[in-house]
Specification:
The chain has 306 residues and is of the alpha+beta class. Helix content is 60%, strand content 21%. The chain contains eight helices and eight strands; from the N terminus they run H-E-E-E-E-E-E-E-H-H-H-H-E-H-H-H. The strands form three sheets. The chain has a three-stranded antiparallel beta sheet with strand order 3-2-5. A hairpin with a 2-residue loop joins strand 2 (39-45) and strand 3 (48-53). Helix 3 crosses helix 5 (143-158). The longest helix has 71 residues, at 177-247. The chain is rod-shaped, with a radius of gyration of 60 Å.
């Protein structure tokens, strides 16, 4: 009987130890939290914020402490198509992205219930106000301006929520169908105009190039003719100089023989009329003197002069 009482006591102690161990394990499971580098835990104790904890291993008191995990990484909010009315009463559909980052985890939990919904609501109302002051033709050209205005307006509001709006990017702007058709026609007309202008500029450039080529060709041709004329003149001057130098050494008899040769060639030509200059009579005198001397020498001497 005593033995049974001891066994029962040991069993009760063992069961108690096991139960205590299970309670401790459950307590530690709920008490230990692992917080990543890009996360923070905002801990509420009996409804009061006691601060931010993390990163690393964080201990909390189960039931007493209620943690709220906050992601500090930059993220984006997609705002779907919003129909806005421009200054000239044209409806346009615009969708855009909002890039945000939490810099104060406590304020992002305490100061706003649903940050994404609140930011989307402010962004859409601000967008309608901004688009209402811009005409349709200027919206596409002022995309960067609209982005900057939206980012500035959102940042003013979200700063008190512990959130920083880093950028706002308009993703798509869809004008009305008739405006799209007009834009397509305008774009086509502009391309045709550019094609005509480019073709005209090409023809103009080609004409100028051809004219410049002709001009250079004429200049080179004239320079060539000039050089050829100079060379011919120099050749003729050299020839005349050579003839003049040779003529100084020719005597009357040689000249007479040249005249006879010229007369022989004239006689063999088919011409029937010959024109002799007045100086030709004076040229005949040396010939007659030479003939007379030759005749007298032949009559008076057995060896006539040669």
């Amino acid at each position: 009987m005593l033995f049974l009482d001891q066994v029962a006591a040991v069993s009760a102690s063992l069961i108690g130890a096991i139960v205590a161990l299970i309670v401790i394990i459950i307590f530690l499971a709920y008490s230990i939290r692992i917080v990543r580098e890009y996360e923070r835990l905002v801990v509420f104790r009996f409804g009061r914020v006691i601060g931010e904890k993390g990163p690393g291993i964080v201990f909390i008191i189960p039931i007493v402490d209620v943690p709220k995990k906050v992601d500090l990484r930059e993220r984006y909010i997609t705002v779907p198509h919003q129909t806005c009315i421009t200054k000239d009463n044209a409806p346009v559909d615009i969708d855009f992205l909002i890039y945000t980052k939490v810099f104060n985890a406590t304020d992002s939990v305490v100061q706003v219930q649903n940050f994404e919904g609140a930011a989307t609501g402010i962004a859409t109302t601000t967008l309608r106000a901004v688009i209402g002051d811009i005409q349709l033709d200027e919206i596409l050209a002022k995309r960067d301006t609209i982005n900057a205005i939206l980012r500035s307006k959102l940042d003013e509001v979200t700063a008190r929520w512990g959130v920083k709006v880093s950028s706002v990017e308009i993703r798509e702007i869809i004008p009305p169908k008739d405006v799209q058709d007009a834009m397509i026609k305008q774009m086509s007309a502009e391309r045709n105009r550019r094609a005509v202008v480019i073709e005209a500029d090409g023809k103009k450039t080609a004409t100028v190039t051809v004219a410049e080529g002709d001009k250079q060709s004429e200049i080179l041709r004239a320079e060539g003719d000039k050089q050829a004329a100079i060379l011919r003149a120099e050749g003729l001057a050299t020839a005349l100089k050579t003839i003049s130098e040779a003529a100084k050494t020719i005597d009357a008899k040689t000249m007479t023989l040249q005249y006879f040769d010229a007369l022989k060639q004239l006689g063999s030509s088919p011409s029937t009329k010959y024109i002799f200059p007045m100086e030709f009579v004076s040229m005949l005198k040396p010939i007659s003197d030479f003939v007379r001397e030759y005749t007298e020498a032949e009559q008076g001497s057995p060896n006539p002069p040669k």
